[in-house]
Amino acid sequence: MKLLVTGGAGYVGSVCAARLLENGHDVTVVDDLSTGHADAVPAGAEFVQADLADTAGQLLADGYDGVLHFAAKSLVGESMQDPDKYWQGNVVTSLRLLEAIREHGTPRLVFSSTAATYGEPESVPIPEDAPTRPTNTYGATKLAIDHAISSYATAHGLGATSLRYFNVAGAHGAFGERHTTETHLIPIVLQVALGLREQVQMFGDDWPTADGTCVRDYIHVTDLADAHLLALEHTRPGEHRVYNLGNGTGFSVQQVVETCREVTGHPIPAAVAPRRAGDPATLVASSDRARSELSWQPKHADLGVIVRDAWEFARGRNAG
After folding, report:
1. Which of 108, 92, 75 minimizes the C-alpha distance to 148?
2. 3-class SS at 203?
3. pTM (whole model) above 0.85
4. Mean pLDDT of the chain, nearest integer
5. Confidence of residue 209 (pLDDT cuts 50, 70, 90)
6. Could you list the active site residues?
């Protein structure tokens, strides 16, 4: 298929673009490089450096079999301090993309959504029919886009899928995680092992969990990318389907730190800090629907494998 990958110079987008190429698809990446990296665009993909909001119509006029939409602002804290940046950058841009999809008759869309649309869950693991009550602007913008996609699917026959997930980690060969502002636990812990930070903070050790630290769902980036490929193949005209993606289990902050110590051979000092307001004790997504309907099965579910791949990428980047 001829496919457009928005945000394909970012972490998840670049891995997905690489997996699409490995599976024989024709890939064009569009990214404004505000947070992505030109050298993360995989060889073999056509690269267009542009603002998606301004160029979606022009790009899709060339005729595409589908769009995989990763382009987004995604820092939770920033979304609360600068909401306009998120409503404009996420929602307005996505609406312009949807209009271009409608105008040019692009039949398929896979949207990189987030489990932040659920907010603080009533039950864990979180199913797709859980109430959506996002607690931050980032999650609210992603939920708004999901609603818009449903409208376009119903009105215009678009076949669409939204994939909701929590924490992505690991690397796919030369493609991995490198954010200017890093907020994710595994790369932060690995930065301590690389000597880029003195220690890692664990926010609370008195949570109602097995070891007192928060439990979160981690999914290997390659497994996540493969779910996008499966979703692309399973879209149905006029339907918008939503799937949660998770590892099937959760890992605590303490487990992540211990695993990073084992993989890196570094002591990785850790300090307990006060709890952060709004942090739930446990967040784990149920991926039963994706396993059943998409035949998706994570192949890299072991935390040690996830950390090892992230470490190899981070160490290689630091050496470079």
Report:
1. 92
2. strand
3. yes
4. 95
5. very high
6. 138
